[in-house]
Amino acid sequence: MKWIDYREKLGIGFSDSDKAKMLANNVATFIKNGALNSSYTTDDYYRFCLMTGTPYSIPYPETQGLYLLFSGKKLSIPQIISHYVAFVNTQNDATKSHKKTLMNALGKFLEDLNIQYELLNDKDGYFLFPKGATELDDALVSQPLEWLKDYPKSHKTYCTALRQYSDGIFIRDVADNLRKTLEGFLQEFLCNDKNLETNKNEICKYLGARGIDAGISGLFQPLINAYKNINDRIAKHNDKVDKKMLEFLLYQTGVLIRMVLVVKQAEMEEPTNAD
After folding, report:
1. How far apart are alpha carbons 7 and 10 in whole angstroms?
2. Which of 58, 66, 125, 171 is the most buried (most CB within 10 A)?
3. What is the pTM of this model?
4. What digits encode the pLDDT tens for the residues 39-69?
5. How many alpha carbons fall within 13 Å on the CB side of residue 46?
């Protein structure tokens, strides 16, 4: 049984400050007892200090400086997570597998404490995305992001939108990047340079040609119309945008991409008929 479950069973809940303290101690213990390997260098520590504004200790204290950072200060949960992610991302010589091990450890700490963040990564390194409903996030954010790796243009734009959204930057640029993700995906998928308005017809033809029920493939046009209408309304704002509208566009982007890629995936898995 997890400690948090044990406490709740006894009727003793955890406040955010309790969770932050426990997370900081878990991270500090992990760093002091094996998180660093021989690839962690003075330069890595220097880069970490510059990125996070942490005082640089001279002489280089190996694990001590990082350990004290997490164990010696009252940091909020976002501060702990952002400092830890910076610790991973500033390790230039660490292998991908070692970085993944470090991030998986953080993921386990977050899961054990029921802290709702999901680990994602792109060419710029790891970042964390605040979780909504797990079923929606898995199906409409995580999986489409993984599948988009075969479509580098839209994958890059989608990562930009997710980073902005996860940082709480609720501005029209996020909506625009989600639209560009969908438009770029359809261009890459259909191998053309047509705009979203034109490609909504092309993708319906694609789905219909693969035997998808007309009632389902026909949904694509009204969905994209609704998607575009909301995007157009958001485009009129220069300041902050309603988070609920961005959340709708975020999940809708996943729905539309998933619909296409699930069809393609099923087609690829179909056995070829022998003559």
Report:
1. 5
2. 66
3. 0.59
4. 788 888 888 889 988 888 765 555 566 777 7
5. 7
